[in-house]
Design a protein that fits this description.
CATH class of the largest domain: Alpha Beta
CATH architecture of the largest domain: Alpha-Beta Complex
Largest sheet: 7 strands, mixed
Low-confidence stretches: none
Distance between the termini: 43 Å
Strand order of the largest sheet: 13-14-18-19-17-16-15
Radius of gyration: 31 Å
Number of helices: 24
CATH topology of the largest domain: inorganic pyrophosphatase (n-terminal core)
Shape: elongated
Number of strands: 28
Strand content: 15-25%
Number of domains: 5
Length: 762
């Protein structure tokens, strides 16, 4: 795990940041944070921390928007029929809703057509033709689509339909012969090209009804976040203004209904991204985008409520479907050995197209490289691509366009269609393209932190980080690190909870699902805690906590953790399996960066026998759930299902029972610590006497007790003896303290740990 820190300010920049902080009424740390992100003048800072409508640009700077407004003015004058044609995702639904409301305010009663996912992305001639036959369409407005539909637009024009294209996707070489509004088209005056489809629809609404379109900023905000647009420049103002509406009494009904019990809490960009957007998208993914549209544009409160309930149910079903496809895709990647490809292409004709984009995004997180997940459609394959920041997947698809049936999208996300015959050639072409870029796709995960904390975080700074909302693409939540070499006691926040809390000098920390981290925190090694800041106000009282995102240990030479390794190896006797007598032996073991293999050692000094071990991430006991790449695991007690193979470098007392293939490399012992153990009763008596002396003292486990009290024993003997006594119940641990039970009388032979060690020593 690699941590990359943000920019370091030079002397002049530090001085300028200090002056800016004083003049803007903020802490130096907040000014420093903004300076490091390029917001390096007082004017920029004031504009950034106070985003409002003044940062929303004149819509008439957009090319084609005047012509679009003129054509719609003519339609209103003539009483013509207008059709809005959108897309099935959250951006398309919001864009269609914005256009519907703005046209209604303008005096045009337009119809809305939203295709289902099975109809395909973009203009669908069958849908339009059916509606045109039912009632003549004079003007068709596309929202969040159309820029790549030049051929279809020619067909519509032959029917006498005038087309206005509003879109934000990458323009192809041949643009539609129609009025076209797209901020990405080169050569126009508009100063920002990062709008989403709903943002472009809002701009046309502005051109028609001016400030009246601002009531739709909540929808534009939702779409901006849902479509993963960068929350910078005009988008920052759109999202900020939209959130003001959503958090006010003017909040639209679907927002309240979709949030349910959480509707009273402050809605942030993260709320939009992780709670509302998935429910809107679930409609399209489950083949019912019409319900998502009705939730926003229906006049009936009952219908809006019913639609929101249905979307919630769809979202639950969507999560289950996505999990199944994700597991299946991981298995295919392992079986087909795709994890080393520069671009991972994985396909199954039985997967549903509605879920492959989400799965692709999850796989990018796992494999740190572009991924395209394909499902079967009409005898061919339809894929959803996601990428890493260093690689523009749209450009890669352009380079391979001769093999494709169709494609479109952005630098980080795209849709693509290919015949089954061309699938293998597409894989080779995309991998070759990325290889030639010279961008190394590696398995190592990188954490981008703003800085390493040196002092306690102040409440004022925590409050000011909250002022930097809305967070999202292009304006990530600030991330910090804190280092400690002390043993940290992380405890559940309440009995039975999987969430843990602990204290550092920098801040009180909250670690969600932090049991695995608690083991690392308790070790006497250097640890780097990666966290962000959560500021809150409850009953008028301000507070903040650090929210733990990662705990990264530095084990050094492992000497300080030897007692913990010995304890773990001994306890595995109670649940592990004996290693086989017959071992597979090779000349050498070479660590290769990839996915699916754990290189296991019971004694860390044997790591040196793994060639290229310096390139590996090293963990103790378990591999954190955040990791799925190949790694070295010291004294494993659990092997994640992410791994298909475990290579034991040395031979332990017991192995971990795992579904993965287990390979045993012979010649090395993983139990040399037994040399320092005695099964003699006099040695046990000495430890017994010592434990009686510390009865009632703090005692969490034998390894920590050895480190805390430094008894006059070897670590191995103390841990061994103590674990035998604990297994037999002669001593027990209650509420973090050692308790002697005088009623328990038991022979050492009744201990499985004792018997196993004695057998090994004979």
């Amino acid at each position: 795990m690699k941590i990359v820190y943000g920019k370091t300010l030079g002397g002049k920049e530090r001085a300028a940041a200090q002056v800016a902080a004083e003049n803007c009424g903020i802490t130096y740390d907040t000014a420093r944070l903004l300076f490091c992100r390029g917001i390096d003048t007082e004017d920029k800072i004031k504009k950034f921390i106070n985003p409002d409508k003044s940062g929303i640009y004149n819509p008439f700077l957009l090319g084609g928007i005047s012509a679009a407004a003129d054509r719609l003015r003519e339609a209103r004058k003539k009483g013509e029929n207008v059709l809005i044609f959108g897309d099935y995702d959250a951006d398309g639904i919001c864009a269609a809703s914005i256009m519907f409301f703005c046209l209604a305010d303008y005096g045009l009663n337009a119809k809305v057509a939203i295709p289902e996912r099975d109809d395909g992305y973009g203009l669908n001639l069958q849908i339009v033709e059916k509606l045109h036959n039912e009632k003549k369409i004079d003007v068709l407005i596309t929202v969040d689509c159309g820029i790549s539909d030049a051929d279809k637009i020619e067909v519509l024009k032959s029917y006498g339909i005038d087309v206005i294209v509003t879109d934000h996707h990458e323009p192809p070489e041949i643009l539609p012969d129609a009025i076209t509004v797209n901020p990405k088209i080169k050569g126009q005056e508009y100063p920002f090209d990062g709008l989403c489809g709903a943002g472009v629809a809002y701009k046309l609404g502005q051109a028609l009804i001016g400030d009246g379109a601002d009531v739709c900023l909540d929808l534009a905000a939702l779409a901006t976040v849902a479509d993963s647009m960068e929350i910078v420049d005009e988008n920052r103002c759109i999202v900020a203004e939209g959130l003001k509406i959503i958090n006010s009494p003017r909040a639209r009904r679907p927002f309240r209904y979709l949030l349910g019990d959480n509707s009273a809490k402050k809605v942030t960009a993260q709320t939009l991204a992780f709670q509302i957007a998935p429910r809107i998208n679930a409609g399209g993914r489950m083949g019912d985008a019409a319900t998502a549209l009705k939730a926003f544009i229906s006049d009936s409160d009952n219908e809006v409520f019913d639609c929101c309930v249905k979307l919630g149910k769809y979202n639950i079903a969507r999560q289950s479907e996505c999990d199944e496809i994700y597991r299946s895709a991981k298995q295919k990647i392992r079986e087909e050995k795709l994890s080393e490809d520069e671009v991972i292409l994985v396909a199954d004709k039985d997967w549903k197209t509605g879920f492959i984009g989400i799965v692709a995004a999850r796989l990018v997180e796992d494999y740190a490289r572009p991924v395209i997940v394909f499902a079967g459609v009409d005898g061919g394959l339809k894929g959803s691509a996601r990428s890493v920041p260093e690689i523009n997947i749209y450009d890669a698809l352009v380079a391979a366009s001769g093999l494709l049936s169709g494609f479109g999208g952005h630098s980080q996300a795209a849709g693509v269609s290919v015949s089954t015959e061309n699938f293998g050639a597409l894989r080779r072409a995309l991998c070759e393209y990325v290889k030639n870029l010279g961008v190394e796709t590696v398995c190592e995960k990188t954490i981008f932190a703003d800085w390493k904390c040196e002092d306690k975080i102040s409440l004022r700074f925590a409050r000011e980080t909250d002022m930097l909302e809305p967070f999202g693409q292009g304006n990530r939540r600030p991330l910090f690190t804190a280092e400690t070499e002390h043993e940290i006691k992380a405890l559940p926040i309440k009995t039975g909870s999987v969430h843990y809390s602990f204290s550092l000098p920098e801040a009180e920390m909250l670690d969600f699902a932090g049991e695995a981290d608690s083991e690392v925190l308790a070790l006497p090694v250097k640890k780097t805690v990666v966290f962000d800041i959560s500021y809150s106000v409850f009953n008028g009282k301000e507070s903040f906590k650090g929210i733990v995102r990662n705990v990264i240990p530095d084990y050094g030479d492992f000497k300080s953790v030897k007692p913990f390794i010995v304890r773990n190896e001994l306890l595995k006797i109670l649940s592990g399996e004996r290693p086989p007598k017959v071992r597979l032996q090779g000349e050498k073991v070479v660590f290769k960066q990839g996915f699916g293999t754990v290189y296991a050692v019971s004694e860390p000094e044997n790591i040196k026998y793994i060639e290229n071990h310096e390139k590996a991430e090293i963990y103790m006991f378990t591999v954190p759930p955040r990791v799925c790449s190949d790694c070295i695991l010291v004294s494993p007690k659990e092997i994640s299902g992410e791994y298909s193979r475990v290579i034991y470098i040395d031979l332990p007392l017991r192995t971990v029972s795992a579904a993965a293939q287990q390979v045993f490399y012979g010649g090395l012992s993983g139990k040399s610590f037994l040399e320092n153990l005695s099964v003699g009763r006099e040695d046990f008596a000495a430890v017994f006497s010592y434990m009686l002396n510390i009865d009632g003292r703090e005692f969490y486990d034998s390894a920590r007790a050895f480190c805390a009290y430094a008894p006059d024993f070897t670590a191995e003997q103390f841990v061994f003896s103590a674990e035998v006594f604990l297994e037999l119940g002669i001593f027990r641990i209650k509420d973090g303290r050692l308790r002697f039970d005088p009623l328990v009388k038991s022979s050492l032979d009744n201990s499985a740990i004792y018997r196993a060690v004695r057998e090994e020593l004979q």
